[in-house]
UniProtKB/TrEMBL annotation:
SUPFAM superfamilies: Acyl-CoA dehydrogenase C-terminal domain-like, Acyl-CoA dehydrogenase NM domain-like
Keywords attached to this entry: FAD, Flavoprotein, Oxidoreductase
Natural source organism: Dyella nitratireducens
Cofactor: FAD
UniProt keyword Protein biosynthesis, yes or no: no
Family statement: Belongs to the acyl-CoA dehydrogenase family.
Pfam families: Acyl-CoA_dh_1, Acyl-CoA_dh_M, Acyl-CoA_dh_N
Gene3D superfamilies noted in UniProt: Acyl-CoA dehydrogenase/oxidase, N-terminal domain (1.10.540.10), Butyryl-CoA Dehydrogenase, subunit A, domain 2 (2.40.110.10), Butyryl-CoA Dehydrogenase, subunit A, domain 3 (1.20.140.10)
Name of the featured protein: Acyl-CoA dehydrogenase
Segments forming domain Acyl-CoA dehydrogenase/oxidase N-terminal: 6-118
Location of the Acyl-CoA oxidase/dehydrogenase middle domain: 122-217
InterPro entries documented for this protein: Acyl-CoA_DH_CS, Acyl-CoA_Oxase/DH_mid-dom, Acyl-CoA_Oxase/DH_mid-dom_sf, AcylCo_DH-like_C, AcylCo_DH/oxidase_C, AcylCoA_DH/ox_N, AcylCoA_DH/ox_N_sf, AcylCoA_DH/oxidase_NM_dom_sf
Length: 386
C-alpha cells in the first residue's frame, strides 16, 4: 500500500474540508436539534462533486478513486455525521450499485442526477422483520401481463427515504428459494403506489431523514430491473462492502472531531491549578484515543486501497471493509465516550458538540451491518467455515 496521497486526492480533501468548516459545521447543532434535512448543503455538495466521488465524468461525477472518497468523507463527518450519512448512501449504496450492475441507460438516467446533487438517492434492503437476516425479506415483486414488475411490501430504516427521488430496492421475485429469489430494482418515488411514512425520531444523525417506505401495487418498468433477475442478494451484499468503507470513514470523522476537541480542552481546562492534560489519567485516555484513531484511519484507508485494487485487477475487498468498519465504529464510540468523560459536565451539555458526537457514533456500530455481523464476516473469511 502506498501511503502517499495524489495531488487530486489532496485537492478533493481540501475542497471537502473547506466546505465542511464553512458551510456544514456552523449549522450542524441547529439542524440536529430541529431534525432538519440539509437540502441546500447537499445540493452544493453535488456541485462540488462530493455526491458522486467515484462516479466517472461521463455520468456526472468527480471521477475519483476510493481513497479520495474516504478522505472527503472523513472531513464531512468531522463537521456533521448526519450530512456524511446522506453523502455515504448516495455514493456507496446508490451510485455504486448502479455503476456496477446497471445498463448504460440506467447509469445516464439515474446516476447523473444523484451525482450532481439534483436528486437524492436511497437504498432499501431492511424490513421491519428482517435486518441482519436480509434474506428473510417479505417484499414481493411479480410480473404483470406487460412484463413489468408489480411490487408490494414495506421497508424500514431507509436513510433519505422521505426526500429520495430514486431508490435501489430489493424484493423477492421467486418465493421459497431464499436469497436466490431476490432481485434488485430502481424505484422512482414519483410513480403511483409508493408511500413514505413518518420520519423516525432518532438518537443521533438527526439531520438525516429516515423513514419506513411502503409499496402498494407499485408498477416498476421492466427496464428498471437492476442486474439479472435472482441476483439481487449478491448485488446487495457487494454494495454493502462498499458501504462499510463509507461508514468506517464516517466513524473516523466523528472520532477525529471528538479527539481534537478533547486535546484542546485538556490544554485549556484547569483543575487544582493545572491543565487537566497534565494529569496521568487524562494522559492515558488521550494516548489510547490517539492509538485507536490512528488504527481506525489506517484500516479504513487500507480498505479503500483494496477496493481500488479489486476494481482494477479483480478480487474482493469485503474482509478489509468489515475490519475497517468494525474497528472504526467501535473506536468512534469509545473515543466519543472518553471525550464526554474528560469534558465532565460540559461534555454532557448541548452547549458543546461532544454529546452530539457521542450520539452520532452509536449508529456506526449498527447500520451497514452490526458489529456482530462484521465479526461473523471476518471470522468466516479467516477460517473458511460457516
Amino acid at each position: 500500500m502506498d501511503f502517499r496521497f495524489t495531488d487530486d486526492q489532496l485537492s478533493l480533501q481540501s475542497i471537502a474540508r473547506d466546505f465542511a468548516q464553512k458551510r456544514i459545521a456552523p449549522v450542524a447543532a441547529e439542524l440536529d436539534a430541529k431534525g432538519e434535512f440539509p437540502l441546500d448543503n447537499i445540493r452544493e455538495m453535488g456541485q462540488l462533486g462530493l455526491m458522486g466521488i467515484e462516479v466517472p465524468h461521463e455520468y456526472g461525477g468527480a471521477g475519483m478513486d476510493p481513497v479520495g472518497y474516504v478522505l472527503a468523507m472523513i472531513e464531512i463527518a468531522a463537521a456533521d455525521a448526519a450530512t456524511s450519512t446522506i453523502m455515504s448512501v448516495n455514493n456507496s449504496l446508490f451510485c455504486n450499485g448502479i455503476l456496477k450492475h446497471g445498463t448504460e441507460e440506467q447509469k445516464q438516467k439515474y446516476v447523473r442526477a444523484i451525482a450532481q446533487g439534483e436528486a437524492i438517492g436511497a437504498y432499501a434492503l431492511t424490513e421491519p422483520q428482517s435486518g441482519s437476516d436480509a434474506s428473510a425479506m417479505h417484499t414481493r415483486a411479480s410480473k404483470n401481463a406487460d412484463g413489468n414488475w408489480v411490487i408490494n411490501g414495506k421497508k424500514s430504516w431507509i436513510t433519505s427515504g422521505p426526500v429520495a427521488r430514486y431508490i435501489v430496492l430489493f424484493a423477492i421475485t421467486t418465493p421459497g428459494i431464499g436469497a436466490k429469489g431476490v432481485s434488485a430494482f430502481i424505484i422512482d418515488t414519483q410513480r403511483p403506489g409508493f408511500h413514505a411514512g413518518k420520519t423516525e425520531p432518532k438518537l443521533g444523525i438527526r439531520a438525516s431523514a429516515t423513514c419506513e417506505i411502503e409499496f402498494n401495487d407499485y408498477v416498476c418498468p421492466k427496464e428498471d430491473l437492476l442486474g439479472e433477475e435472482g441476483k439481487g442478494f449478491s448485488i446487495a451484499m457487494g454494495v454493502l462492502d462498499a458501504g462499510r468503507i463509507g461508514i468506517a470513514s464516517q466513524a473516523v470523522g466523528i472520532a477525529r472531531a471528538a479527539y481534537e476537541a478533547t486535546l484542546q480542552w485538556s490544554r485549556d481546562r484547569k483543575a487544582f491549578g493545572h491543565p487537566i492534560g497534565t494529569f496521568q489519567m487524562t494522559q492515558a485516555k488521550i494516548a489510547d484515543m490517539k492509538c485507536k484513531l490512528d488504527a481506525a484511519t489506517l484500516l479504513t484507508l487500507r480498505a479503500a486501497w483494496a477496493k481500488g485494487e479489486a476494481e482494477k485487477n479483480g478480487g474482493r475487498f469485503g474482509t478489509e471493509a468489515s475490519v475497517a468498519k468494525l474497528v472504526a465504529s467501535e473506536a468512534a464510540m469509545w473515543i466519543s465516550h472518553q471525550a464526554v468523560q474528560i469534558h465532565g459536565g460540559m461534555g454532557y451539555s448541548k452547549e458543546m458538540p461532544l454529546e452530539r458526537y457521542f450520539r452520532d457514533a452509536k449508529i456506526t456500530e449498527i447500520y451497514e451491518g452490526t458489529s456482530e455481523i462484521q465479526r461473523l464476516v471476518i471470522a468466516r473469511a479467516e477460517t473458511g467455515l460457516r
